[in-house]
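Hi support team,

I submitted a single chain yesterday and got back a structure, but I'm not sure I'm reading the token output correctly. Could someone confirm the output below corresponds to the sequence I sent? I've pasted both exactly as they appear in my results page.

Thanks,
R.
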Amino acid sequence: MSDKQTLPANQTKPLLLLTLTALSGEFPSNQADRLGSPTYMENVVKDLKREGLLRTYYKDRLRGYRLKAKAKALLLAAYPDRFGFFLTGNSETNQPKSEITRRLRLHRIAESLITMQGAGVLIFRDEKPEVFYPEGAKRTSPLRIDAPAFYNSREVKELGTEFVKIRGARMVGMLLTGSNAFVVYNPGSARCRWEYKSEMRTKALMKTVLCQQRLAGQYAPDAVQGIILGDGMEMAYDLLTGQEAGQRNYFVLDGNYDSFHYIPNNHDGEVILKILCDAGRAAELRSVLSENLLPRTTGSHIENDGFDRQGNPVLFAHTFDLPRIARFHHALRLQERSGTIICFDFQAEVLKRYCTAQVSFETISLQKYEGRFLT
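Hi R., thanks for writing in. Yes, this is the structure output for that exact sequence:
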């Protein structure tokens, strides 16, 4: 960077860090390593501070990065359509608060943006369709989602008075793909505390707005699903076992959403997200996994994606659909049957702890999958 008041060059890590900080309001310092090597990102932060573009905000043992006025002015001048919504007015992103609960929410949004961006999902307002416009606003062209796009909770709030109906909901945003709409949650490493009625109203509102109104020609009535982002895979184990331990995880497992996927906020999760966002890629993997299996039976009393040569059910768990995994495991125990779960290698340890000895496992190497299908 030069001594002039200019932004870092396009397609660089310094500009990416400034961008994600602008979209979230405060970027958690412990997430910078997800953008590059620790040593490199440490130098990036130092340079941005020295240029007067970034500062550290530390309070309540929580450290984050915030934009300085110079950075906001440069981003607004260079990309007004991209950052005007976030860096003007008395918004949470332009003037972030100091309360730890509000800061943690900004951090969760930042983590979600990193995961989405790493999976190739559109996160910038000038690159994605305007879906959550206020009720009554005029549009001149029909809406269509041609590429996966993420809208954080502040953008969803543009619905206006409609959004008031879901106040208290824990969602951090909506992920829209060509065929599905995902309500996205990100509790990080904290145990989820669901506001059941608020979450059910969230689902109902998204079905109305997306499936019946604005994207009705594209989305089926059951297109709305759920995604939980978390720190590593341990949160997935807590969600699967919480109901048995008497915790309030019933919102995830009792079928409110037909599918509720768990995705870690790391590179592994970004790969899973790529599969969820691409129907062709998902079908390709299912086709490979179905080789040597007897066909799937929809009328069976047990969840399945096919049967092995001994007639035992097989479940594909690579997208870590929590209710589906729980139903499969519960049915095996009730019917005293054996079955097989196929998952990625990084997901296996949690599932082996959760499942009884009636379940056997086959794993897919994430590294080999990437090399074969994502290169």
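A quick pointer for reading it: DSSP finds 14 helices and eleven strands in the chain. Let us know if anything else looks off.

Best,
Support desk
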